[in-house]
Amino acid sequence: MKKNILLITLAITLVFTAKVFAMGGDDHSSHGAKANMGEMQHGSSAHGGTFKHETMAGDVHAEFQIMDLASMNMKDPQGKTHHVMASFMRDGKKIDNVVGKVKLISPSGKEQLASLENFGSGVFAANFSIDQPGKWGVICLFKDEKDQQTVKFWYDHMKM
Ligand SMILES: [Cu+2]
């Protein structure tokens, strides 16, 4: 019951966040930049077919990876193409109890929403269809016992 209320709250906030995100326009100049905070890497990188985005959300270090399911020899039952994986750390420790949602906005403005599934050991993931080259907006809203945070970043999907 408690979890349901939480999810509804997340959904409402996400709708709002998506609007803010969509209006954000060209405010993504710093997204390619990398910053060092202690040993943590922040920013976006892509190599070997895996895209990675790391950032601070409040006191939480959040890490996202976007992976091509086919390149991992994996298949989604609904034919989705990509895996968005997330992990969260506070004070150097993985947070293993998170409720979250991820919204993807395609270059043409189409939205997909999925709940993060808990895979254990602090790994959370959801599958999406990333079927169009260009800049995809990614929004993740997550909540643990302590706090609720939002992370937004761009994923530049290569031409196929
Ligand atoms: Cu960090």
Keywords:
160 residues; mainly beta; eight-stranded antiparallel β-sheet; binds copper (II) ion
Protein described:
With 160 residues, the chain is mainly beta. It contains one helix and twelve strands. Strand 1 and strand 2 form a beta hairpin. Mean pLDDT is 84; it is low at 23-37. The structure holds copper (II) ion. Copper (II) ion binds next to strand 2.
| Radius of gyration computed on alpha carbons | 15 Å
Which of globular, elongated, flat, extended, rod-shaped describes the shape?
globular
Which percent range describes the beta-strand content?
over 45%
User: What summary fits the major beta sheet?
Assistant: 8 strands, antiparallel
Following the backbone from N to C, one meets helices and strands in this order, namely: HEEEEEEEEEEEE
Helix proportion range: 10-25%
Total number of β-strand segments? 12
Contiguous runs where pLDDT drops below 50 for at least 5 residues: 23-37
Can you count the helices? 1
Structural class: mainly beta
Ligand identities: copper (II) ion
Mean pLDDT: 84
Termini separation (Å)? 43 Å
Give a brief description.
This protein is mainly beta.
Element layout with pairings:
Blueprint: H1 2-23, E1 35-37, E2 40-47, E3 50-57, E4 60-68, E5 82-90, E6 93-94, E7 99-105, E8 111-115, E9 117-120, E10 123-128, E11 134-143, E12 148-157
Copper (II) ion binds next to strand 2.
